[in-house]
Amino acid sequence: MNDSNARQIRLGDLNFNVVVEGQGPAVLLVHGFPDDHSVWRNQIPALVAAGFCVIAPDLRGCGQTDIARGVRAYRIQHLVSDLVGILDALGVEKVRLVGHDWGAVIAWQLCMRHPERIDRYLALSVGHPTAYARGPLEQKLKGYYIWLLQLRGLIEWALRLKNWWLFRAVARYPSECQRWISNLSRPARLTAAINYYRANLQLILPKALPKPVVPVMGIWSSGDRFLSEAQMRNSAKWVNSSWRYVRLDGPSHWLQLDAPDAFNALMLDYLH
Fold first, then answer.
1. SS (H, E, C) 27-42
2. What is the C-alpha to C-alpha distance for residues 35 and 70, in angstroms, rounded to an integer?
3. Which residue has the higher pLDDT, 162 or 3?
4. Which residue range forms the structural domain that includes residue 154?
5. Bridge partners (DSSP) listed for residue 53
6. Structurally, how many domains does the chain consist of?
């Protein structure tokens, strides 16, 4: 991955940092919390070598992209519009889509709202929002942190306390923690990242949302402490096209970092 290939794309009042690398069919990589485009550092070179053009943005408030002010600025419709705006700015009509964590949440919505822009979708960790919201008690327990993040001001203070002890304890991913902490320590960045959860609490309510009409593949990893397997497996009921599910045994929630070889093989096989 070469960050010299990053460019700035202006959408409204925000500058988006977007890595664009390679030539060929476009692949849009959408990161989650608390990441930026660098979470795809093991995938971008593999995709470029395989003949794809990779588009990997830092989402609003993340990485080197500008912060949007206020909680409402992070509502799901704005997050989807950002991705469409980036594709429009680059002159890309249709993409192969890969999303992880919050990136997967946004990508599901992109498939529902703009199916004409999506060739196929690879969802990592997070299943269809209806399957997630109707998930078993296991998922409710694993998602406890969503409610803690609603404590405005207090949770920011608690996460930073004693050299980010609580943040480290919840994430339990020491190899990446210092990178995250360095990014989130910048002014207003932690609140911006948490605003994804504050602005979209309605997404965890159990209601029937549209079924994407694009092909979808879901991958879940057995070491994921935040998401249950059921919410991904049950997504089969919420796709009106082909569906494929793969379970990776061993990797944590950040499966693209923990098992890059195994994941890349699945990704390239699906996207070709």
1. EEEECCCCCCHHHHCC
2. 20
3. 162
4. 3-271
5. 26
6. 1
Whether residue 205 has pLDDT greater than 90: no
Distance CA 262, CA 143 (A): 27
pTM of structure: 0.97
Residue 30 pLDDT > 70: yes
CA-derived radius of gyration, the chain: 17
For the chain, give me the number of helices (H) and strands (E)? 12, 8
The beta-carbon contacts of 140-144 under 8 Å, at least 24 apart in sequence, are 142/225, 142/226, 142/227, 142/228, 143/204, 143/226, 143/227
Closest residue by Cα to residue 271 from 112, 94, 109? 94
List pLDDT tens digits, range 63-84: 999 999 999 999 999 999 999 9
The CATH number of residue 240's host domain is 3.40.50.1820
Q: What angle do CA 49, 86, 71 make, to 5 degrees?
A: 125
Distance CA 64, CA 29 (A): 16
92-137 pLDDT per residue, tens: 999 999 999 999 999 999 999 999 999 999 999 999 999 999 999 9
